[in-house]
Specification:
heterodimer; A: about 250 residues; alpha/beta; Rossmann fold; 10 helices; B: about 300 residues; mainly beta; 3 helices
Amino acid sequence: MLELRNISYLVDDENGRNEIINDVSLDIREKFVAITGPNGSGKSTLAKLIAGILKPTSGRIILDGTDITDLNIDERARLGISFAFQQPIKFKGITVRDIISLASGKKLPLNVVCDYLSQVGLCARDYVDREINDSLSGGELKRIEIATIMARGTKLSIFDEPEAGIDLWSFQNLIQVFDSLREKTDGSIIVISHQERILNIADKVILLADGKVGSFGEAGEIIPSLANGVTDVCSKIPGQGEQTIG
Amino acid sequence: MARKLDQIELNMLHEIADLHQIPDGAYNIRLNGESAGRNSTENITIESKTDKPGINIIIKPGTKNEACHIPVMLSESGITEVVYNDFFIGEDADVVIVAGCGIHNCGTDLSEHDGVHTFHVGKNAHVRYVEKHYGEGDGLGQNVLNPTTVVYIEEGGRMEMETTQIKGVDSTVRETTARLADGASLEIREKIMTHGKQVAKTNFTVDLDGEGSSANVVSRSVARDESTQKFVSCIRGNNVCTGHSECDAIIMDNASVSASPDLDANNVEASLIHEAAIGKIAGDQIIKLRTLGLTEAEAEEQIIAGFLK
């Protein structure tokens, strides 16, 4: 499905050259893979490199045998990569129905839009004609973001910390959404998360630290090895603690 | 009907009034400076002025859920005209008025329509006024539209004004003045897109004279290419009242946009707010839509369409 070959991403800042991602190689074939690690470990950067939002300094990205390293964001999207932002983007005038229709690539009938919204726990009637702007809470925006990825139905879906900002929605619903996505997809889902319960439902877990792969393996093997759970591991790293949801 | 409309004129009728044919109910169609059709109804009377070009639209008190269409079209190059239309909306009436002007200029001469619309909104009446301006034609002649709207709203009256100019008008100066009595309210929503070397100027002046009166003036605009826009909004709070004006503009290419708020509070209980935001399309909005498979150009198009929706 997705192969990363020696991916590095370097930036120049006031401290000189900074390696955000350092020679990462991965072969992702599982249906559900979670990437975890402390803040600043490069998780979101890695996701953006896969989606084409950032370009790697070196290395190649292969999707189903095709080298997509030099493709731009929309070319990769049309090849079947979806990306759910950690901070959903707001618009003036574009409604929930508009964005879900754009995501699906066609004008959707109302009942189909409503179905996607219902799956992420939103009462469709109340949201379908709302603008995606500041009038929506952070949690509502996140759920709509997830609904757009569902509407795309691509072979590779990347979620950047889907649990962040969801404060009123029961976390169990989020787990159910990912269970359902895994059931329906023919491809792979990559979720960046700090949440142990999300890591627990993953087929494989990748631990990133300092831009490198610390460990990559079966969830059942990796999580216990993370010093009695990821949240404990994270709590030992400065600036990183458990996130509480719902 | 004075004469049948041709396809160009029917297209313009659709653009400015969302009509595919001559409407039911009250209407007056002005084509190339002459009447091309008129119909009055039991409650809405349309009559020609005797002292100057234009019409009077008289709506009986208590008229509910009726609409009146008064489109103006210029399909011949080189026509310039000033037309005065006065609307008298009776007490407790609740009506929709659809105006608008379309110019199809395939010639080399300037085509210009300056409409002066004066509204007298009676006590507790409600009117929704929809106005669209549209220009087309591949000639070198300029399309110029200068609408003037004068509004008087009596006690408890309400007016919603939706004005749109998206395409094809080379130059426009839009003047709107309003004076509101006790409990009256005015809502103005303006949408403008300019391109090429077009120039659009908008001046709103609202006097909130009445106790409990309110006004909300919202302008959303997109300026592309070398076009220029200027938005001036003056709200005077002369009593216990609330006023809000907002200018939200997307600027692209080498265009320029100017927004000038002017709030005059002449009463300690007047509450007046102005907001203005001018900027280019946010890069993260384009990235978001590109992750859905849209090209950069398609993403821009969707963002602008949503913004002006």
